[in-house]
Input
Amino acid sequence: MLRFLRPKDKEKTDRAVEKTRKAWFGRVTTMLRGARLDESLWDDLEEILISADTGVATTQVLLGRVRQRVIDEGADHTESVLAFLKDEMVAILAAAEADGAKTDGSEQNPLVLLVVGVNGVGKTTSIAKLTQLYKKEGKKVILGAADTFRAAAIEQLQSWGHRLDADVIAHRPDADPGAVAFDTLQAAKARGADVVIIDTAGRLHTKVNLMEEIKKIQRVLARRKEGRNQRVLLALDATTGQNGLHQAHAFVDALSCDGAILAKLDGTAKGGVVVAIAYELKLPVLYIGTGEQPDDFAAFDPREFVDALFGES
Ligand code: GDP
Output
């Protein structure tokens, strides 16, 4: 039985959202200390949230809920607005986690993780990070290089496999990704692997073909008993903000994604996108990328994230 490994790391989360905190959410904290609760305050809040890439729709829903609570609870102090805002953000993030609750179900070995996402978002690096996470727990990890479209992708995965001491199953460039996935599963069975991580292609300009290719990999895997404990993780690049969200829709609409890995959160001041991912895609963010090294990875925790965003009060 193998569940998702989700080690929390407050310090890494704090560091990863530093830019976003300094540019935007820290300002909200300062602004809501001692300000007057008037209409201009709501306008300022809206502007800051949208600037931090929380998204127009998500921002409006979020502030709508906060305003309602101010009315319902007769709050007359901006400190209450801050508390409500944080609570409602956590609620949106936690609701997405609850929707994706099946992700934590305990099932049989191996755990098969299909990592999908557009080229360049940080997919391969995130696979390396997942590998490191499971290896540290003493799990045997095997990687499948099913992005056969780019020779460089195969080499990159092999190089991570070598560095992290994990077997990589690869075919020639242009080989059938389904065949790579099948062989990876065979190898996993023969070698007693606990976790199988499959890299997939990410050429979005051939969207329909790409989704069909990924679905085919899923079918090939599901035909075998060892391939049934499948999870699809969507890798997203935090630095691409609302654009990335748009691309993510293509995956979420076509595939049943179990959760997101938000890479490069450390590289953006627009970390509000996390809330938009949860609200608009109904997708739980499971992990955040906090740097370029295999250890620069943390499990996402809604309350920890929101506290880190606004800074310690
Ligand atoms: P892929 O094409 O989606 O497989 O993307 P890669 O894994 O090759 O990553 C693209 C670039 O983003 C590389 O330079 C990575 O080092 C960098 N990268 C990936 N994840 C993170 C992260 O969490 N933080 C930072 N700062 N850089 C990252």
Observations:
- The pocket of guanosine-5'-diphosphate is lined by residues 117, 119-125, 202, 263-264, 266-267, 289-292, 296 (CB under 6 Å).
